[in-house]
Structure formats: C-alpha cells, structure tokens
Amino acid sequence: MLHFVPLAAFALVALSGEAAEVRFLVRPDSGIEAGCALGHAALPCAGMNPARVSARVAAANGAPAPAGVFWSAPGELLKVGFDLVPGEREYWITISDRIAPSSNWVARSGLLLETRQSRSGAPVESLADFRKRWDAAAGADGRGFVASIFHGANPHGRSERFLSLYSGFFRAAAPGEYEFATLSSDASFLLVNGRPVADWPGLHPPRDGRHGEHSGRVRLDAGMHCIEYAHAQCAGASCAVAAWKQPGEAAFQVMPPGAFAPAAEFKPAMYEPLSDDAPRACFTWQAKAHTRVDSIAVVLVLVSVLGPDPGAAPCRWIFGDGVKAVGRAVEHIFPKAGMRAVRLEVEGRGAIEQDILVAPNWAQANDWPEDLFRRQVRDFTGRDWRSAPVADAIAAAQWADRVGAPELAARAGESLIARASEVPPDDCQVFVTLGRRFWGHDLGRYDMAERSFRIALEKGAAPARRQAALQLAAFLIHLRALPDDARAALDAVEWQGADSETQRARTALLADAALMDGDAEAARRGYAEADREPRGNRRAALARLALLDAANNCLARGELDEAARLVRKVEADNPLEKLRPESGLILLDVFLGRREYQAALARSRLLEPVVSSERQRAQRLGKTVLALRALGRTAEAGAALKTLLADYPYSEAAAEAVRLQETSP
After folding, report:
1. Using an 8 Å Cβ cutoff, are 588 and 601 in contact?
2. Does residue 629 have a pLDDT over 80?
3. Would you say residue 546 has pLDDT above 90?
4. How crowded is the C-beta side of 463, counted as CA atoms within 13 Å?
5. Alpha carbon distance 253, 255 (integer Å)
C-alpha cells in the first residue's frame, strides 16, 4: 500500500477547558445516488483554530453518523466526511476545537484525491521512488473527493510540478479477469487491493499510452475493491487517466464516475452557535474564478452568510483590501491572493472577522476569462487606492502593468507615489515598473515617471535601486536630453555585485551619454564593450539588416509600436548600431508619429554626430523642425529651418518643411 493518510487518522484527542462549539445543518447539493454510503461537506471554522477542530455528525432524526475531518488548513474550509444514515437527507454537523470523537472513522466509499508539490523535477522510475518523493514533499496542496481518475490539472494547487495520489473504491460488476491501464504524462502507478497492476514510470507524453500499452491484469470477485493511483507530473501539461477492460470487453475504456463507489456532496444551509463564546454570525466562501498571468492571480470570491435563520437582517461586509459591500451573498475581487481578512456584520447578530485563504480556482481550465478580466479592470479602476492597503495597491499596479491596463496602473501608481513612505524597500521595484508605464507613449506622464524612478532610487533595496538608476539614466538621456544628470543617477548606485546584463546596460547608457555630448569615439568604445555579438559575424549582420528592413515596412504601414520594438531589439543586442543613422531615423519617425516630441528631439541630438550623408543630415534637421514646432518652441524651430534651407536648400526635407510651414495655421 502507498503511504496515504487514511481518513481514520483524523480523530483528535480531547482537550480540557471551555471552547466555542457550533453546528451546521447540511443538505445534499443534488440527489443522492442509489447505494451511496458516504457524505462530505466543506464548512467554515467559525473563528476556531482549524488545526484543533474535530467534528461529530447526527442525522436530522437524531441518529448518530460516524464522521471525521479529512482536511483542515488555515484560511480554508474544514472538510468533514460522514457515513449516511439510510433514508436521511439532512444532517447536523457539530464542530469544536475541544471535541473528542468517540471512535475513529474509516471511509467505505468515494474516491479521494490528495496532491502535493514535488521538490524535484527528476523522473520517477518506480513506485518506491514515488513513495520517497511523496514523503519528501512539503505538505499537501489539498485533499478532496473526486468523481473519477481523469484529470488534466492539479485541482488543489499549481500544476507545474506536483504529485497526485487517488485512493478509493470501485465496484466490479461480475467476477472475472479485469485489465487496468494507465494513461499519463510522466510517471504513474495503479494498484488494486494494494497490489501493483499497471505502471508507466519516467518522463513521457501521454500519447504512447492511448491504446492501453501500459496495463496489467488481475482477477476480481464481484463487489467493492480498493484502488490507488499515483501520478508524478514533472514538467509540461498534466494528464492522469485510469482505464479498464472488464470481462468480455474488447477495448479499454476510461473508468467512468459510475464505476466508483459514490460520495454525496452536502452544502451548509443553516448555522447555529451552541456555546456562549461562539460567534452569532458565520459565513462561507468560494473562489469562483480568477485571471492569472505569470505568478499574479486576481481572484473573484463569493462570500455568503449562513443562518442562524434565513431572515433578512442587513448584512455588511468589510474586506481586507478596504472595500465594503452589503448583502447576504456578495462577490468580491481581491487584487492580491493569500490570507485575507473578511469581516461580516449582521444586524442583531453581531460580527465575525475571519482570515480566509484567497487562491485561484485551480480547477478552472482557462486562466484568462475575458469577461472576468474586463470586470476586474472596471472594478479596480473605480476604486480609491489611496485608502487601500499598500500591498493591494502594489498588486493592482503590477497586475495592470502586466496585462496592459495603463489607466489602472496610473491610478494605483498615483496612490503609491503619494504614499511612498509606506512602501517597504523590498517592494520598491514597483516604482520602476510604474516609471516605465508613466513614460510609455500611451500615458506620456513624464513628471510622474521621473518621480517614480527617483523614489525607487532613493528607497529601494539594492536590486531595485540598480534598475531604477538604469531606467532613470535612460529617461534623462532619451527624453530629457540631460547626459550629465544621467551620469549622476548612475553614480548614485553601487554596481559591485551586479550581474553581467545589468553591468552591460550601464556601460551602454554611459556610451549614450558620451554620444549625446558629441564624443563619438568614447561612445564607440562603450558600445563595443556592451555589444552582445562579436564584430564580423556576417550572419548576425544580415539578421540586423533584416530587422531594420522589417521596421521600415512596419513604419510604412503605420505599425509604429512594432517598428519601435524591432529597432529597440537591434540596438539592445548590438549597441554599435546607434553609430549608424538608419535605426535612429526610424525611431525619429516613430516618435513623431506617436507625438513623443521630446523623445524625438533627444534622438535627434544622438544622431547629430553620426549622420554622414547630406540626405540623412537634411532628414534629421527636417524632423527636428517638426518636433520643435509641435512643442511650441517656435524660435528654435525657425533657427533649425533656416539652417536646413541654407545648408540643404534642394533636399526633400527642406521642401517638406517649407510646405508644412506654408500650410500651418
């Protein structure tokens, strides 16, 4: 047998002293299948310590039902299993942190799944290897009843690298020889009545097991039998399926839910405090849906009042992120997952405050429901982040930046800048993120961008300060055209210990500052040091030319953002390209098209030492005139135009500048 903790192991020892005691009336969520002998329910702990809670169960007619707690964890609902009393559909579940169960309880029905995060991604080559991996895991993600052994994700936690163990019962309809097969991504092992029957160890996709290639036979009597299925997902998409071939059948079929001994899910319908110190009000909760990008999850949670009666007493909610709501059942979007406080106030019944674990709905197939995303953006954009906990404002800003919601990022960012003293140094990376977002052409709030970078530079931990220095220096060069200020920002940080990519970025920025000062030779030395590719690589040179050609094509089609992205890639990989005018002239057109006139002027200044042909010099001057006019700097625009007409009177740039001057109001 595998080292699975049976339900019977959850009996607790009685403790002395007074304690809160409450009970819940539960009813089946749907019909109870014929032959079902087990029920289970998920209940709030009503403010009690979940590690010290146990339960007893009785049918509505008073008949006791053997029971046990099979899952308890901080911030999560308590899961209770119990034997059904024939003919009874309603049960009272009493919970307390001082109850001593009269006897241990063993489940005789259902299929239980527990998952754990694996500490290793190495292949599992045997059942013994799985047992070791299972015992070494850092606690369980969760445990609950499932309908069948047929899953494509971890229903209790992250699916990247995890272990699953199914344990339960199935019914053999007739005596005879049964054949069982496993279909899985990576290692799986199937046991019947404690005996290994089928296995498929190692790392592999599921496709090579679609026809029962990994199977085994066992002779069974008619009736109930124990099944265990162990699965180790080491990488990639998950798949865990148990199939069988019953006597007389020609092909394997997935074991259907009807093959397993059923377990009925019950839902709480009423709450009743039994002791004086028990809360008068109680609520339950459920993660309804989420959006998740990278490691950031924004979760929609449903909270619902439970009893003590279904009356219409006003119910007020205060959530840990500062939002308030009214109603017996309320949906709330938490910007930050984790343990969150929820307070319920019921008029005439008092109040209860409880920490709940806000986590993604792991069973959700799609991490990005568009309707929910739009709802989240509307909700967050309407909030006053100045009164929210700083951690929630940080989470909202980071999420908004990651999903491309600039107005929301700005709204949350403004509150964080106003409350910068409250942001811990380790969280100041958010100001670097906000600075980039404020700098972006979709917002163009340059003063806020500079303030964000300077806050991170002043308050952040070492990694954030280095990133802030790099971003601020880039901002001061490529927008403000202030190379000396950029050098001062870089000098404000200790660079010893920084990684090679960070050091490379610093070197390239110092070369930018030198180029803006007109020292092309110093810039060349710096760019050469920061270059990712050795000179003379013909293949790399052709790739750069292809990217610049693609950028020009994007420019012609009006795809300005894509043109800018391609040029940025060329210059990031090969900083020496900045000494050639082609990439800079493309960016000048991008900036003018996006109305980033300050950036256009800064780039024009960087181009001045490197443009060589008369045509390129005329182009630079003509675009400079346009940017100066757009900024209202008419005297400077006139002087640039005069130079253009004097030095390059017959150029296309001069003709276009004159035409625009004659047609402008």
Report:
1. no
2. yes
3. yes
4. 7
5. 6
